[in-house]
Design brief:
Strand content: 5-15%
Shape: flat
Order of helices and strands: EHHEEHHHHHHH
Length: about 180
């Protein structure tokens, strides 16, 4: 889920803490910079706990909502299990290098972050299909196997992929007016 800075500012602190700052952009027709965020959640391969609750219990849970839901709800936690501290730390370094115009180093860090996410999903079995048949091939970013590349795109981090594609389209060098 992608949200704007204006939306992010309306959220409670516990909800904000679950957002990831992706980029800072200038909206066409404006000179004001806006941060964009994502709420990272995967549904593929997640065994939802909600189905273990009766409809009455689910309604009661919804009526007694508190800000702690972001830290306690089993479904929300399960959908974010692929977002590890190691991934976030590496992504933030890559994003900060990207925003600072240090693209060659940003590319390295964002590829590393993507690999961390892929490794987490493979090792934890957080996918709708059994990936064990691919062995370590999924963890090899230099593979040329088209099926493996497609799977890496599917289970990796789309934000890393998008930022990497943009930087590579620009030749890996930030524009002069960056």
């Amino acid at each position: 889920i992608i949200v704007s800075q204006a939306f992010e500012e309306l959220l409670s602190e516990p909800a904000r803490s679950r957002l990831r700052h992706l980029d800072t952009v200038t909206v066409k027709g404006s000179s004001m910079k806006q941060r964009i965020f994502s709420y990272d959640a995967r549904h593929k391969g997640v065994n939802f706990f909600l189905y273990d609750r009766s409809p009455e219990q689910a309604d009661l849970d919804a009526e007694t909502y508190t800000q702690n839901i972001w830290k306690t709800d089993p479904d929300l936690l399960k959908m974010r299990q692929h977002v590890t501290k190691d991934f976030m730390d590496t992504f933030v370094k890559g994003r900060d290098l990207y925003l600072a115009g240090k693209w060659s180093r940003a590319i390295e860090k964002l590829k590393e972050a993507d690999n961390i996410m892929i490794q987490t999903i493979v090792e934890e079995g957080i996918y709708e299909y059994d990936l064990t048949t691919y062995g370590d091939q999924l963890l090899d970013p230099s593979t040329s196997n088209e099926e493996i590349l497609r799977l890496r795109q599917d289970i990796g981090d789309r934000t890393c992929h998008n930022l990497l594609a943009y930087m590579e389209k620009e030749g890996g060098v930030a524009p002069e007016n960056w």
